[in-house]
Amino acid sequence: MTAQVLVLLGSASDKPVFEKAKTVFDELGIKWEVHVASAHRTPQKVVKLVESSKADVFIGIAGLSAALPGVIAAHTTKPVIGVPVDSKLGGLDALLSAAQLPPGIPVASVGIDRGENAALLAAAMLALKEPELGEKLASYRKKMREKIEADDESAQKW
Amino acid sequence: MTAQVLVLLGSASDKPVFEKAKTVFDELGIKWEVHVASAHRTPQKVVKLVESSKADVFIGIAGLSAALPGVIAAHTTKPVIGVPVDSKLGGLDALLSAAQLPPGIPVASVGIDRGENAALLAAAMLALKEPELGEKLASYRKKMREKIEADDESAQKW
Amino acid sequence: MTAQVLVLLGSASDKPVFEKAKTVFDELGIKWEVHVASAHRTPQKVVKLVESSKADVFIGIAGLSAALPGVIAAHTTKPVIGVPVDSKLGGLDALLSAAQLPPGIPVASVGIDRGENAALLAAAMLALKEPELGEKLASYRKKMREKIEADDESAQKW
Amino acid sequence: MTAQVLVLLGSASDKPVFEKAKTVFDELGIKWEVHVASAHRTPQKVVKLVESSKADVFIGIAGLSAALPGVIAAHTTKPVIGVPVDSKLGGLDALLSAAQLPPGIPVASVGIDRGENAALLAAAMLALKEPELGEKLASYRKKMREKIEADDESAQKW
Amino acid sequence: MTAQVLVLLGSASDKPVFEKAKTVFDELGIKWEVHVASAHRTPQKVVKLVESSKADVFIGIAGLSAALPGVIAAHTTKPVIGVPVDSKLGGLDALLSAAQLPPGIPVASVGIDRGENAALLAAAMLALKEPELGEKLASYRKKMREKIEADDESAQKW
Amino acid sequence: MTAQVLVLLGSASDKPVFEKAKTVFDELGIKWEVHVASAHRTPQKVVKLVESSKADVFIGIAGLSAALPGVIAAHTTKPVIGVPVDSKLGGLDALLSAAQLPPGIPVASVGIDRGENAALLAAAMLALKEPELGEKLASYRKKMREKIEADDESAQKW
Amino acid sequence: MTAQVLVLLGSASDKPVFEKAKTVFDELGIKWEVHVASAHRTPQKVVKLVESSKADVFIGIAGLSAALPGVIAAHTTKPVIGVPVDSKLGGLDALLSAAQLPPGIPVASVGIDRGENAALLAAAMLALKEPELGEKLASYRKKMREKIEADDESAQKW
Amino acid sequence: MTAQVLVLLGSASDKPVFEKAKTVFDELGIKWEVHVASAHRTPQKVVKLVESSKADVFIGIAGLSAALPGVIAAHTTKPVIGVPVDSKLGGLDALLSAAQLPPGIPVASVGIDRGENAALLAAAMLALKEPELGEKLASYRKKMREKIEADDESAQKW
Predict the structure, then answer these.
(1) How much of chain C, in percent, has pLDDT values that exceed 70?
(2) Do F40 and G71 touch (CB under 8 A)?
């Protein structure tokens, strides 16, 4: 079974953010592979994982000076999603590191600690060649809307 | 001719950022369509453009409270790229508005004023179903590397 | 009974900020209606609620990339109040999203998590055509002053 | 002729921001009165102007530690709009000073240097008791939409 | 007994910051008077307290849009010390509001939540005409140095 | 002639900020002495100047990591005023360095580039033992008010 | 036994950050000496410790307006490492104070609360003349990589 | 001739910051080598340059998401200096990216655009095994002090 999405975490401590992504992957039936691999502490491992991967989309989850998504993007022309993690400064350091890439090397940054959005964004990309995934995304949104409708119904008793 | 990428600008003043994207699109042979359409000033137009579009990828370019990419994402499950534009506060307001989306609605934010990266990210997504685009991206990177090698050669005379 | 103020919350988790507003509304006898409706997750619902409402004033309470008040303002020329909620970055992302609207679409932003001030601001607007509400606001301030006078009296024993 | 809106500027150097408001007032036929009056340098004058004014809406335009709108709000229960001006730090100091008011004293902050939005917000408030102003606001928006449509038409030649 | 320093708190919730000042005042034998008086909620009280005070130095302690020290300074030419309090955004809003005064109206801002430093700064000012206070300040510093020397001695066992 | 105020500049490039102070000193008849002396580059000189000075008030003007006012305060118990200078980051680095002193060592920080306010604050301190200076300050304020009144008169023609 | 690294803490409360450094020193066999000595509260002690030290590398650990590393650097031409400590504002004040030194006085700032990185950086410097330390650093990294490999193995069960 | 310091620039546009370093190197007689090599655009080149270099100290100069110094540090245990460059947001993005490294991989960050300080810090490190360089650094500081003394002399005529 080949993973469609390769997820790299800069540190095992980023696991809670990954788990938000995992929940989405499993709900949508997306095949994923995860590795703890740091752009700073195991750089060769990152390069090897990226270059040998058959995945269509890459996700880098990291805090502080979040170089991981940018380093992944440096070694592939496939789409790379960055998830900045709040470790210090409310995650502002990680957001700026993940988003402010130089011209030529794009990273798709989602919001701070937004693992689920990284997974949904990956799904949207994969759906470009796998139309049934687009239908699953539409269902996912429908459920989300229904959840908000239910919340709204509850709110009528506030 | 159907556009592969639909680009919306929140204001005609965002044109210079769009032009960076256009240069990349034209170099890579990607079919694009552009519209000035504001999430705040012409919201119905944004919705209509997004919902009627056959494009595979959407890009929203906007400054200040850059709601445009998030509003596009609210009306499609296709991938949406946000380009925050520096209008006030160095673009920090636009970056936070473009990146800090709520769970469930992903936007792929690139860096402040990074129109070229939005186009490259769109290309990476399109390449998932159009392999020759991946080759063009690889060539693009090769040229970029050669440019840096040339810069490095010049640097030997500094 | 027609609501004078329509309050929209981007998420049910914003309830504590809404409750500060509710306390003020009930004290001043202002008729309100509340809905959970997200600019990103249920955009059509937001538009429908706003366009069908007979309310005189609108309030949008939201965190992160707080597009809600701006999207409300995009669909009405009635006054719209934005309440940024602290979810990440101390609420700076929401404040900038709520306040930094483009020319032409005004949003009246109050401070982070300041639900009570949103309600008081709405009251001040409604008082323009309902003078007795102005008197109630004057009484409210008087009580507030008396509270501070009492605090000051306690302080004399510090 | 009684002014409907009283505009106070913390400094004569804030004139360019006021002029954006004036253009809107004159287009919508709103009667305004303007004074240079500083919360810090001429505090009594501010109090006297506010307390003696018959205006329905107040606007305070100020940079740096922009106390002016909050001080106006301290002396009236009428709606008060704050316009933070970029003088240092990109206007972040003024925005936080204008928006982060304590519970009980609401200020409606618009974006940095957004004089036109202050005027439009004042118009929306005045329209609560003057319905024809609401129609003028609708026309204003229509023109704005047409301007963006024209911009979009031009964009088709980019 | 006439107070040498008049301390105003924008809110009773600022008491912990005041208590740091009180400890210093009592240790140095400085006569103080404290009042809860808000620049926004009881502005006349602030003006009356300041204008009727015989104190030599004023201290304003406030959070959020901390207008209090600036408003005190607007009504006296005596030295005014501002103490920004952390209520939101880590106190950055209060620091900018307290420090970024316009030309002509100086406020002496100390650090966020630094009540003790406000008291020490007041003491340094009062010592200009009361030399024995300068000696007390020198003793205070000596004790502080001794405390650090003791800490350093403990550190030799780390 | 003994200087009443000793002004230290961290760099000759801070001269424009000093000149705002000088104008005030000369208008109020305050005797000043100025030195370029850096906390980082000529630390002994700073210590020597501070310890040998008979001045009643010290002012440190510096940009970047503005250690100068804090270092002055470390060597005197006289009041020390800090003037953060905008050199990078809009002066935010200098403001935080000047204001965020540890407990026990107070610095009176004024706003970014606010040399005139440093001089006025020094004057307010000196006036504690030199009452006629208080009268001069009152006159200074009166002129300032008249200037604003004149500005307001001009504004009636806007 | 002469210390190779002299570590100064601005306050005993910075001990937890120091302990991260101590663990590294002890693991690598680096001789260290620690003192609590404040740039603001015991400035002469700082100068005396620095000028009399035979250490090859200096580390200053401090929060708030973290002048300590810069003041150390002002008194030695040996390499000085700064460790900003999070005390207020998430440590942003300390980071800017530690990093934004003026031209001519370099400080090597590591990240907020990163005591271990300060020790590793000191080790890297000492290794320039003590090659076996370089080997220990290589071993340290190897262990770090093995730790991440083990984490990655665990991740395969997530 | 073997370079003692290897300087990498993320982009040829960082040249002005490099030139500040070069001036210091040439004045102190330090042998340097420079290359334009981007962590994102030519990652293999960075790795190859670092791993094959015999230099004792490395400097990475980069703007935006300044991954370069961290990536250099990931491939060597020699000391690595980071120079954040102001390209967007006043250089705050680059400073946070350069300084906020994870535990285990230290980077010595100097201030924004501070090329000269990077060179001086490298010199201080090299002086650990080359004592005459320490003397040159002492002379450099002496000249710097004399420059400030001369500035101070000029200031006596202000």
Answers:
(1) 99
(2) yes
Q: Is E113 on the interface with G (CB under 8 A)?
A: yes
Beta strands in B65-137 (DSSP E): 80-85, 108-109
Q: E106: part of which helix (H) or strand (E)?
A: none
- How open is the CA angle C75-C77-C81, to the nearest 5 degrees? 85
Query: E128–F103: do the CB atoms touch at under 8 Å?
Result: no
Contacts of G59 (CB under 8 A, 6+ apart): G5, G6, G7, G8, G21, G69, G80, G81, G82, G83, G118, G119, G122
- Report pLDDT for B61: 98
Residue C149, chain E, CB below 8 Å: the answer is yes
pLDDT tens for F37-89 read: 999 999 999 999 999 999 999 999 999 999 999 999 999 999 999 999 999 99
Chain D: list its partners (3+ Cβ pairs within 8 Å). B, C, E, F
Query: Is-contact E92 E85, C-beta < 8 A?
Result: no
Q: How many CB pairs under 8 A join B and D?
A: 48
Q: Is the pLDDT of residue H1 over 70?
A: no
Nearest to E95 among F99, F116, F138 (CB): F99
* DSSP annotation of B155: H
In whole angstroms, what is the distance from residue B23 CA to residue B42 CA? 27
Helix (H) or strand (E) holding D72: helix D68-74
pLDDT per residue as tens digits for the range F136-149:
999 999 999 999 99
Say whether pLDDT at B1 is over 90: no
Contact assessment for residue A87 and residue A64, using Cβ atoms and an 8 Å cutoff:
yes
Q: How far is B96 from chain A (nearest CA, A)?
A: 8
Q: Does G92 touch chain H (CB under 8 A)?
A: no
Q: Which helix (H) or strand (E) holds G107?
A: none
Q: What CA–CA distance (Å, rounded) separates D76 from D57? A: 10
For chain F, what percent of residues have pLDDT higher than 70?
Answer: 99
Contacts of B40 in chain C (CB under 8 A): 70-71, 73-74, 101-102, 104-105
Mean pLDDT within C34-63: 98
Contact C35 A141 (CB under 8 A): no
CA–CA dist B19, B11 (Å, integer): 13
- For strand B5-9 and strand B108-109, is the pairing parallel, antiparallel, or unpaired? unpaired
Q: Kindly report the nearest CA distance between residue H111 and chain F, in angstroms.
A: 9
* d(C-alpha D45, C-alpha F157), whole Å: 19
The CATH code that applies to domain E5-130 is 3.40.50.1970
Contacts of D156 in chain B (CB under 8 A): 34
Give CA–CA dist G123/A72, Å, rounded. 30
What residues contact B8, with CB distance under 8 A and at least 6 apart? B34, B35, B36, B37, B46, B49, B50, B58, B59, B60, B61, B68, B72
Spatial separation of the C-alpha atoms in residues B89 and H108, rounded to whole Å: 28
Cβ atoms within 10 Å, residue D44: 12
Compare all CA atoms of chain B with the CA of C64 and give the residue at the minimum distance. Answer: B100
Per-domain boundaries in chain E: 5-130
Is C touching D (3+ C-beta pairs, cut-off 8 A)? Answer: yes
Q: Which of E95, E104, E112 shows the shortest C-beta gap to F144?
A: E104
Q: Is the CB of residue H100 less than 8 Å away from at least one CB of chain A?
A: yes
Cα of F143 vs its chain's centroid, Å: 21
CA–CA gap between residue A22 and residue A120 (Å, rounded): 10
Closest to F57 in 3D by CA, of E127, E58, G40: E127
